[in-house]
Every structure is written in C-alpha cells, then in structure tokens.
Amino acid sequence: MLFNEEFSHTNPVNAALPLTNEWRSILSNNTIEALNIAHRTVKKKSFLPTESKILKGINEHTPDDVRVVILGQDPYPTPGQAIGRAFGCGLGLSPSLKMIFICLETYYGEKERDLKLDYLVKQGVMLINSAFTISTSANDTSHHYIWEDFTVAFLKDLVRYNRDIVLIGWGESAKKVLRKVEHPYTEVDEHPAAAVRRNDEWLTPTFQDTNNTLRRLGKKIISW
Q1: CATH number, span 9-216
Q2: Which of 49, 13, 16, 8 is nearest to 30 (CA)?
Q3: Using the 8-state DSSP alphabet, how is residue 93 labeled?
Q4: Fewer Cβ atoms within 10 A, N terminus or C terminus of the chain?
Q5: Strands (DSSP E) along the chain, which ranges?
Q6: Can you point out the beta strands (E) in 62-165?
Q7: CA angle, corner 104, sides to 103 and 108, nearest 5?
Q8: What is the pLDDT averaged over residues 117-141?
Q9: How far is CA 224 from CA 48, 54, 75, 131, in A?
Q10: Can you say how many angstroms the Cα of residue 83 is from the centroid of all Cα atoms in its chain?
C-alpha cells in the first residue's frame, strides 16, 4: 500500500463518531475535521439511520480488504430499513434493491442474495452513500451538502492508500462526488430508483465493467 505522510498523525484530530484504528490511521486530519463538521450539523436535526449505524459501512471493513466501493445517494427514509449500508435493507426488499437483484439475475443467474448484502460485504465490497444520513423531514434535502466534503475526502484518502480499488457511483449525487475524487477506476450509472420511477428496467453494465477492471489489475473478481 502507498504510504503518505498525511496518514501519520503527530497531532491527530479526535473523530466525533467512532472509527476503527485501521481507518483512523489512514484518514487525514482534514477528513476527520470534515466528518466532525457534518456530525455537528446533523445532530441539530432528526435523522436516519441511528447514530451507531452512520459509519457502519466503513467500519465493517478494513482499508486493506476493500476491493470495490458502491456509492449510492442517501439512506432509506423509513425507520428500521436503513442499516448503515447503501442498498442493504432491514425491513424487506426495497424497490431499488429489487432492481439491483433483477439486473444481477439477468447477467449472472439466480443465487441466494441476502437483503442486507452480507454476501457482498464479505467479498470486500463497501456499501456507502454520498450522504451518510437523511433527515426525517421530507422537506429537508440538505443532507448531500452536509456530507459531501467528508465523502469526497474519505474516498480520496482510501484510493490514495490503495489505488487498486474500483469506485461505482449510482445517481447524480454519487457522480458529483466521484468527479471530485478523480480516481481512474470509476464506473457510474443512473440510480436504480430512477428506473423505478419510470417503471423501466435497470440493466447497468457497472458490475461487468468492474470485474473487467479487477481482472486487468490482477485482482479477484466479485461474485455478484
């Protein structure tokens, strides 16, 4: 892995939300500051998921086991459905995840795919959203603005540490974040919810393209 002096914290900034030591060791102080600013802003609101799950999608990995990052838009707005992983469901199959499963079955056939997406996490697929929280107020759409600086900074630190990671972004907010990250191994497409709204199919090539990139990098492919 690449070493960068930014990862060596002579005067580390304390994170307002729990981060494992492995993540803290590779994240710059600027990234932690961005996390703390977002957290202070979010705490003034009523939000989902619960605070203990905000960084679950990060902390359940180590920096060394991440091979792919799927970046969605925002958590589910229903209590209990948002579990701290993009697209993972706590209460039942969401329309977006249903679209994803249909796409995967079309390309790769039927297999057991759990609603919480444990099978992907175990393969090193990180599932996070551009915004790590969502307001419980339907009229409040500030969450993307609140979290954007942290999400961009986090992904920049991650791919600086390990360049051989594929970033997948679905939806306009995810695309915006990934444009700022400027990583060469990036795949983007529309969000599956857009196809749901159109009552249309969603057959993204990003799964196949990601595995093609992993092959070129000499890495193990994902069993989607």
Answers
A1: 3.40.470.10
A2: 13
A3: -
A4: N
A5: 47-48, 68-72, 125-129, 134-135, 166-170, 186-189
A6: 68-72, 125-129, 134-135
A7: 125
A8: 92
A9: 28, 25, 22, 24
A10: 12
Chain segment 64-75, per-residue pLDDT in tens? 999 999 999 999
> What tokens were used for 69?
């990052």
Q: Which pLDDT band, with edges at 50, 70 and 90, does 2 fall under?
A: very low
Domain boundaries, the chain: 9-216
Query: Left, alpha or beta for 110 (phi > 0: left; psi -120 to 50: alpha)?
Result: beta
- Residue 89 DSSP symbol: B
Q: Which residue has the tokens 């977006």?
A: 96
Q: How far is CA 147 from CA 18, 27, 117, 134, 168, in A?
A: 16, 16, 23, 10, 18
Question: Can the peptide bond before residue 49 be classed as cis, meaning omega within 30 degrees of 0?
Answer: yes
pLDDT at 164 > cutoff 50: yes
Question: Rounded to two decimals, what is the model's pTM?
Answer: 0.93
Per-residue buried b or exposed e for 67-82, using 16+ beta carbons within 10 Å of the residue's own CB: bbbbbbbbbbeeeebb
Active site residue 74: yes
Collapsing DSSP to helix, strand or coil, 188 comes out as strand
List the catalytic residue out of 64, 74, 118, 164. Answer: 74
From first CA to last CA, the distance across the chain in angstroms is 26
pLDDT band at 9 (very low <50, low <70, confident <90, very high): low
Residue 1 has pLDDT above 70, yes or no: no
